Structures
1.
Amino acid sequence: MKIAIIGFGNLGKTFASSFIKSRVIKNEDIYVVSRTLPKLEMSLGIPMINFQNTPSLKIAESDIIILCTKPQDFEEVVKTLKPVISEEQIILSVMAGVSIEKIKEKLGIKKVIRSMPNLGTQIGLGMTVFSASAEIDRKDLFIVQNLINTTGKSIYVEDESLINPATAVSGSGPAYVFYFMNAMIKAAEEFGFSSSEAEVLVHQTFLGAVNLQSASNLSNEELIMKVASKGGTTESALNVFITNALDETIAQAMQSANSRAIELGA
């Protein structure tokens, strides 16, 4: 199997690295189109001859083409990519907001899989939600899901409209976690802990909580109650969250992310 990756930013490099480490794709079977060609030491073992500034007939030899470009750059990509691709090839897109129908129309192809991975893919702990056009058969879907799963876990949804909400939940989600962690670190520093001590306190707390939640059969509500004794310190903190409607603020933020994903694909 031959793979072409359009765009060699964080996601493009992550896919290439994951495929190679998992041994599902050989180095020499990966082609990359990037505005800036990498130095040899950053090529991940992919032959330098396989790197191009613009799509060429080499792309026509690929079975799957992965679009790792920004949605704002899609129109520009179409101009150079459309002349060298065929209907038999599978397009896997990670562009936020750009619909399957738009990709089919602009590129003049039929087999399209639209996905939304998140930052965790960089360490093999990613979460990807994906959907496919009707022309993708079960075999193709299985092949692509195996590729995606080299970067973590995935969920297939028949309803493409769920991709934008997935962007708001898991795609943008890591930033929400980092934001909350950062706020806790700053608060710990105000208590008097050094920055390094605050980092360890918060990091280990999140790490322990996530692993405990993964290992437990209890719901999040039940886990909260295990920490929050009546009249105790945790209940006092949670009451501040409730008073300030933190859950509503989080929901509003995710709705905003969803709306922006829709706008980007318009």
2.
Amino acid sequence: MPSVDRLVADLLRDIMLQLPSSIQQKFDFVQVSRFWRGVALDSPLFWSSFSGDVSTMTSHRLPLVLERSGSETMLHIEFWFPWHDMALVPVDALKPLVQYAARIESLDLTFPSVFDVALLQSHMDFPALRTLRLKAPEYSGFPPLALNAPQLRTLDFENIGPADWSTVLVATLDNIRLYNAADASVETLSYIFNRCPRAWRIVLYVWDSYYSDHTADYFEVFARRPLAPALQELELRLADEDLTRVLNTGFSDIVLPTVTASIYNGHRDNNLDILTGALLPGLGPLVVFQLLGPDQIELRDEAGRIRRLECWNDDSSFDGLDVWKYLSRNYALHKTVREIRISAAYWERYIDAFELYPPQRDDGITLGVELVERTSADRTSPRKMRLPGLARVEFIRTMPDSTPASVEGILRVLESVEPPTARKVEVCAGNNTFYAPGGITEGVFDALKNALSNQWVVCSHCA
């Protein structure tokens, strides 16, 4: 091959490795020209990372992809199989992977309840496996897994679990997520703490966590030291009593950077007890207050530590007035908070809360307002929200695919805020896409600039 051809081939290989991993797209690539096909077929690394679904083309091509991946490259595999139409799923779709188990480094599978996964249920060894993500349908009753993966770093199970936790809860793990994993419980959590000293993130959601039959003495297992020495993020959904006892017993002298507590059917007093009795001890002055919906509160202290409390139910929820009032009265939140994030959908109750305990920092308070949908600002009140020290209003969007907001919606919110007389207040459109005259636009600077009164100024970000 002439030198220029070798150079072109090297560049083409670099480009190939940046392409999406879809099997279909890989085969589209090799059909561009004979030269491209030759370079691709001689590049095992190009075929070693791939993703697919249940299409006939993918199932027929999987053996060819595996063959072209060579004999030494590590495999990174992702497959999604639909739950709504299991007739589309070949029962042996994963069978070609069995003979390559020793080379699989990451495996990410979403599959229906009726599925042949001999790959994961035959006590096979996966000596190179570092990442294992498996998701089955809720209430699928999926058979327990039986595999050995002694070098796992990331484990993510949803609605599925192993026959023997010791085969997957290994000492090398550093990222663990068990979301309604079969047979996972408080005992599993203590098992993780004992066996996984490198774990920096642990998420344990026990779906049927309505009540607890554990005695108080049981939780002394969490008093052992050292307890999860590398842990940075802990997210738990357990029975209320279990959650409180785990946090109070295991972390009474450990202040983690991030803790999320999730409960079911929580009531006002119980919510506040968990928040203040189990989540807040050890934190410094609170500087961020976020209550975007009726079921999740987030607080941050001045050191950046995060505490979240979620309530999963339909008939009980947080009340913005109660939470703000309680934290202001007992933790001086109204004197320390620098950033407040709320939803326009619950505007009225926040006006009442801030009138009782108005934020008092005069060095600049940021108000974040979520416009979930185009009409959410219509729910604001003709009453004025008064925030002494207000310096910035930012419109935030928590869901990337939210319906675009409108410039008119921004103005309706601003009309319901009484700005201070001592300064102009910045207005930031944040990461939103907006409706403006002429259609959907990313840049709303001109529309805002022309519409705002002298009390407001468009921020440099939007400009």
3.
Amino acid sequence: MVKKQLIMEKALELFAKQGFEATSVQQITEHCGISKGAFYLSFKSKDELIMALINQFMMQFTSDIDYVVKNSNTDELLYDFYYTSYSFFLQHSDFAKVFIKEQIQSFNEEFIEKIRYFDRLFDEIILSMIERLYGEETQEIKYDLGYCIKKFMGMYSELFFYYNFQMDIPLLVQSLVEKTNLIAKHMTIPFISHEFYQAYKKQVNEVELTKKDILEMIDQKLEEMDMSIEKESLILLKQEVSSPTLAPVLVNGLLENIRNHPHCKWITYLLRSYFKL
């Protein structure tokens, strides 16, 4: 295992038990069985480690949800969206709990910008889902509907993360699908207008990735991977970014090869956007 990933996994175990503030670098290094010097070769500080964990969590969630929205059948899309979201939260419950409980204490600018960035990506994914599901019928209300979907997810997550209720995910998802469809069908007075949404977008720093950025990220991922079908596919995708020759169906097949690799979820999401797939 790459040492950086080992530190992240072991630190997460401690954060889940003790919280961010109560966990020291010394405790992390002892739990990992490494020296402080080895820790600081991977992370400049505990705050940088926490940001790396937030990044990893949000990148995996965003890429998983984006894939579902782009690939589920329309009849199952809304169910798959909610089901994938809650399944992800439960699968990563240790981090989700500590993150949700402690994020309000972290008001540094880097943290706020990071959360805004991923929140913005999530907004776009939800809007694309609404357009797939309802088309022109919801043009006037789609921003309000998207906001309602996000708040549904947050409100019902609290029952698990704050009160430790056992969640019947299929029942919850069926309930949320019904609520969402009712709002989409019957809402007549939207509050969030197109102009309102555009003004909100301007407050979030957009990240424009260039071809050079993509290639550098691919190189970084290749260094972390052992030789495998996933690594071979990523090498071919790097070649496609540098010099496009493949048909979209072949590019999509290569992306399918890498999307479930733990080091490739985010680069898969970025490449899908880059190739417009």
